[in-house]
Write a structure and sequence with these properties.
Strand order of the largest sheet: 1-5-4
Number of helices: 5
Order of helices and strands: EHEEEEHEEHEHEH
Largest sheet: 3 strands, antiparallel
Helix content: 25-40%
Distance between the termini: 49 Å
Structural class: alpha+beta
C-alpha cells in the first residue's frame, strides 16, 4: 500500500535516479513491485508507514515516516534489495550516484560527470541551471529543495574545473 500522500514532511527519503526515462510498461512494473514491497515493509515486526513516488518518469523515491516506526538496518537492506531487483530487471542503473539530472521543460536531461563538464564548457549548463539534488533527506526537503541551481549542489565542483 502506497501511503505517499499521507506521509509527514519528516519522512525519510531515498532517491534513486535511472539513466533514462522509463516507458509506461516499465513504470507499471516498478509501481507494482513497490506497491507490493510497501505493503509488507517492516522493521523488527513493526509495519513501516511508507510510500513511493516516481518523478519525471525517471526518479524513484522511497519514503518512510520514522516517527511511527524507525527503519532498521535490516529493513533498509530489504528496500535496497527491491531497488536492486528493479534495477537488474530493467537495466536502468539506479545506483549511479555520480549522474547529474538537469531539469528542462520536457523532463530531465541526464549527464555523466564528463558529459556534465562538456555541457558546462559549451555553455549548455551554467551555475544557475536547475538540477535535481538527490541528497535530500526528508519529504520537506524534497518538496522545497529538490530542484536547485548547480551552484547550490555537489555539482558546483565542476564549475571551478571549467573556469
Amino acid at each position: 500500500m502506497n501511503l505517499w500522500d499521507n506521509l509527514t514532511g519528516h519522512a525519510r527519503v531515498w532517491v534513486y535516479g535511472a539513466k533514462r526515462r522509463l516507458s509506461d510498461q516499465e513504470l507499471t512494473l516498478v509501481k507494482n513491485q513497490l506497491e507490493d514491497f510497501c505493503a509488507d515493509w517492516a522493521a523488527h515486526g513493526a509495519k513501516l508507514a511508507c510510500g513511493f513516488n516516481i518523478l519525471y518518469d525517471q526518479l524513484v523515491i522511497l519514503a518512510v515516516d520514522e516517527q511511527q516506526a524507525a527503519a532498521s538496518g535490516c529493513s533498509i537492506d530489504s528496500s535496497v534489495r527491491v531497488i536492486r531487483e528493479i534495477d537488474a530487471n530493467l537495466n536502468i542503473d539506479l545506483f549511479n550516484r555520480l549522474r547529474a539530472f538537469v531539469v528542462r521543460e520536457n523532463g530531465l536531461e541526464t549527464y555523466s560527470p564528463s558529459e556534465f563538464k562538456t555541457a558546462l564548457e559549451a555553455n549548455l549548463i551554467n551555475a544557475d541551471t536547475a538540477v535535481i539534488d538527490p541528497l535530500v533527506l526528508n519529504l520537506d526537503q524534497l518538496n522545497q529543495e529538490f530542484i536547485k541551481p548547480v551552484s547550490d549542489t555537489w555539482l558546483k565542483k565542476y564549475l571551478v574545473m571549467t573556469n
